[in-house]
Amino acid sequence: MSQTVDRALSILPLLAEGPADLGRVADRLGVHKSTALRLLRTLHQHGLVHRQSDQRYRLGARLFALAQEAMESLDVREIAHPHLLRLNEQCGHTVHLAVHEDDEVLYIDKVDSRYPVRMYSRIGKPVAITVAAVAKLLLADLPEAERRAVAQRLDYPLYTARSTPNAAAFLKELATVREQGWAADLGGHEESINCVAAPIRGADGRVAAAMSVSAPNVVVTAEDLLALLPLARRTADAVSDEFSGRNPSGTNPVKDPV
User: What is the DSSP letter of 121?
Assistant: First the structure.
């Protein structure tokens, strides 16, 4: 049964790439067409996939509805969004909100920059976990044993010369992030993109989410982006206060920096 479920779920990432016919699904799963058809029919019955008129399959509307419901249940997103909008209005750069789930760090909200250059990040998409500033904050807050276990099972792709190369370097960086209470990605994922991030904490003091400000070098230097860190941290603190119940009405919005 577990193998059947695994195969059925493996179909969804394939269809996320675009519509696929029965043969392609069977080839990707490494099964006979009759097995692939049985799995597709089951997913179709639940609305998770849809059979088109050209006999190809695509993701179903029910899947998107479930994803939307799941995202809406993340209260931190609803609470943080007006703060993210305000931060974006103040600095003009791209603002992200991310959470840690099942060994992935996912963007759950994004406010695009006001200038023509756009970042390719998308809501619901995993971040580059070994270099992203939001990921460093979320993983740095894990208990030490869990933090080490996660670091050991991650891959460390070298996106740029500044990417984190291995688990030892990653753990050292997480220790620094844990101590200083903020994180940065200065060209670790893309050489031309820099990012600073601050934690959002729940009532228990643990990091529940992380928010970041990102911008390309052609718009602002790394040094100037780092200068926005106090504003980003005040915004994160305001979200934390509201999310944790310390300031449930959000009556103390972050002011423009003097």
Answer: -
